Description:
Elements: E1 6-13, H1 16-25, E2 29-33, E3 38-42, E4 48-53, E5 62-67, E6 80-87, E7 92-98, E8 104-110
Parallel strand pairs: 1-4, 5-8
Antiparallel strand pairs: 1-5, 2-3, 3-4, 6-7, 7-8
Amino acid sequence: MKTEGIEAVFLETHNWGKQARFLRELGFEVEFETDHGSGQFRNGDGPYVFVAEIPPTSEPRTLLVLKAADTAERPGGDVEIVSEFEPTHYGTQEMTVRDPDGRLWNLQAPGEE
């Protein structure tokens, strides 16, 4: 399976407001905000950054999201599939894989039409 580069960076935070101000100071612009402590930022033509607030009892994670053309092809070889492509509540399909060092990567494909 070939991917088409980095689609997004997904960040979890304990403080949405502080993280949003931090990204704005670095030149990112808000594309949209939700009413539950999350939103999407972009700086130029690169990948978008999606930030989601989590409870203080959880450890914040950072995930790279790779762009996949479709859900028909599956990775092989040294790619461990953690979860198959599944529909998301925001209209895409996502799969999670693990690299040889144990890091998780998300693959994002267009939603089913």
